Amino acid sequence: MKRTGLSVAVALLAMAGAVQAQEQRTAKVAQCTGLQPAEVAAQVKRDYLQNRITRWASDKKLLGTATPIAWVSPETITGKDAIWQVPLRVRGTKQDKTYNVTLDCNVGEITYSEPQ
C-alpha cells in the first residue's frame, strides 16, 4: 500500500515538472506587429540569448555553454498576420540544436519548442 502511494506521488511530481517545463517555453514579449522577416529574426535571436538561455539550465547543460551562438535565416521564416514560425539554430560547445519558435505579434507571445 505504501509503495503504491509513493509511486503515485512520484508520478504526480513528474507530471507537474513536465507541465512546468512546458510553461517555461512560452513567454510574453512586446507586441511586434509590422515587422519584416529580418526584424523577426533579430528579435527571436535577441530574446533567446538575453532572456531564455539564461533561465534554461537543462538547455545550457545540453549545449555545454551559457553563451551559445544563435542564428536565424530570414529566408526560412514563414507566417502571416503577424504570427511567425522561426527556425532558430543554436551552437554550443557540445552540440548544435534547433528550436522551432512561434512569435505571435498580435498577442505579444513567444513559444519555443524543446531543442531538437
Could you say which structural class the secondary elements and strand pairing correspond to? Answer: alpha+beta
Terminal residue distance: 40 Å
Q: How much is the average pLDDT?
A: 85
Number of helices: 3
Radius of gyration: 17 Å
> Could you name the ranges where pLDDT drops below 50 across 5 or more consecutive residues?
12-23
- The ordered H/E elements are HEHHEEEEE
Helicity range of the residues?
Answer: 25-40%
- How many strand segments? 6
| Share of residues in strands | 25-35%
- Major sheet characteristics: 6 strands, antiparallel
Description:
This protein is α+β, with helices and mostly antiparallel strands and 116 residues long. 39% of the residues lie in helices and 27% in strands. It has helices at 2-23, 37-52, 57-63, and strands spanning 26-28, 69-71, 78-80, 83-91, 96-104, 109-112. Strands 1, 2, 3, 4, 5 and 6 form a six-stranded antiparallel beta sheet that branches. A hairpin with a 2-residue loop joins β3 (78-80) and β4 (83-91). It is globular, with a radius of gyration of 17 Å. The model is unreliable at 12-23 (pLDDT under 50).
Question: What does the secondary structure layout of this molecule look like, with pairings?
Answer:
Layout: H1 2-23, E1 26-28, H2 37-52, H3 57-63, E2 69-71, E3 78-80, E4 83-91, E5 96-104, E6 109-112
Antiparallel strand pairs: 1-6, 2-4, 3-4, 4-5, 5-6
Compose a concise summary of this entry.
The protein is an alpha+beta fold and 116 residues long. The chain contains three helices and six strands. Strands 1, 2, 3, 4, 5 and 6 form a six-stranded antiparallel β-sheet that branches.
